[in-house]
Write a structure and sequence with these properties.
Elements: E1 4-8, E2 25-29, H1 30-65, H2 70-103
Antiparallel strand pairs: 1-2
């Protein structure tokens, strides 16, 4: 069941700088708000997922091209670890937002 969200626009008589035209009341429902949150979450999640995948490939290439150089391998391992942490954060944040939106 969707609850209506009503926003009352102030009466322009008290302030001449406020230009109010018909209607003086804007209404919507909360489902559109949650749909917007889900859409933003979806595109943000996909873009962060893409960045993490690019970092995974980059670190894999760094490990292959290190040729035993400890400094390069350490840098590539660090990038790989943080890319995996980023993926876990993406999955967790997506799940939390979906859970909160589905609860309401």
């Amino acid at each position: 069941m969707a609850h209506a969200i009503v926003i009352d626009v102030p009466d322009p008589a008290w302030n001449s700088n406020v230009a109010v035209v018909w209607p003086t009341q804007v209404s919507g429902d909360e489902s559109s708000f949650f749909q917007t949150i889900q859409m933003v979450n979806k595109y943000l999640w996909m873009s962060l997922w893409l960045v993490c995948m690019i970092l995974l490939v980059y670190s894999g290439i760094g490990l292959i091209s290190a040729n035993g150089d400890e400094k390069k391998m350490k840098s590539a391992n660090s990038t790989l670890m943080w890319a995996l942490v980023g993926i876990l954060i993406c999955i967790f944040s997506y799940a939390v937002v979906r859970l909160v939106v589905n609860l309401f």
